[in-house]
Write a structure and sequence with these properties.
By secondary structure, the protein is mostly helical. The chain has helices at 5-8, 12-27, 42-66. It has one domain (10-29, 39-66). Helix 2 runs parallel beside helix 3 (42-66).
């Protein structure tokens, strides 16, 4: 399997951005499907998913308290 260097590059800023994008997606009730991250490093996908999990949890809490 060929090694793609660009797939392994990430920074604290890119991790934070991926997390924030995931958080906003979860917070607004979007499906757990990261956009534009398919070709990125697994760690960026994990950051996005962690953000989505946290945002989705807040979305559900807000939904329960608003009902």
């Amino acid at each position: 399997m060929p090694h793609d260097d660009h797939l392994e590059k990430w920074s604290l800023e890119s991790l934070n951005k991926a997390y924030q994008q995931g958080y906003m997606a979860g917070l607004t009730g979007h499906a757990k499907q990261p956009r534009n991250l398919e070709a990125q490093a697994d760690i960026l996908l994990a950051a996005w998913e962690a953000g989505w999990d946290d945002g989705s949890e807040q979305f559900e809490l807000h939904k329960r308290h608003s009902a």
